[in-house]
Give the backbone structure.
Amino acid sequence: METTNQVRTLQRIIEAIATSDGAGVKLRRSLGRGQGTRLDPFLMLDEFSSDNPGDYIAGFPAHPHRGFETVTYMLDGHMRHEDHLGNQGDLKGGGVQWMTAGRGIIHSEMPQQEQGRMRGFQLWINLPAKEKMKAAGYRDIQPDQIPLVEFEGGRAKVIAGTLHAGERQVAGPIQGLSTDPLYLDIELAPGARFSHPVRHDYHAFVYLYEGSLQVGADAPRALGTHQVGVLSPGSGIEVGAGPDGARFLLLAGRPLNEPIAQYGPFVMNTSAEIEQAIVDFQSGKFVQPAM
């Protein structure tokens, strides 16, 4: 089917559901909340947002990961990252931490506040089989390293990939990954429209976290707050904000088209690799240097 000159439509809606993770942090999970709710290469998307310290104060004590990348984007609040490699990072409003678990990492993300709003997102992006056992890595991206682009009717933060705004092309701090992710945080004024090219062979979705949004061109469909809108194949997206405006994430990436085996914080390609990950973690190999 020819899709190279087609505006993407809203193909499927995935509702974010209330759950908890870590030591009891309350959040909403959309992608990854059950079987069939992934969108290759994206494994999971969580939104956390609360003014009640009881919903987040226990944080995410030390835990392991293997085989994928985690991206934590903070809107409000202050979290501290520490891992067994010695990395430390203070994640504050507007900042991002991009962690590559690779062959294995043990890290914690703990609140550095006792009151006030804690709000943000965590995204899991799969790694291709050839990279699942590469060395772990961590990057702390400060708010002033993330471009903020103003355009008619709105603005966008460019976290990964490149924003195309008219004749302008603005690159975010994350480039050159195998999945080639596009990660934009977009705010639109009431009634404003936004369009953006997306490679036709990439998977793409939007996550609306404030306001309302119409997705598509000829026969747009409504997307509600705290919903993922999975987009059809096509060459780009077109959306329009409702009467209260809209704030949403736009994500796209190159699908890996590889089998997925997951057990909690381990994401590999086969069950045998999952079993090995459990053995390696239990035997302390996650904290040993790679041979």
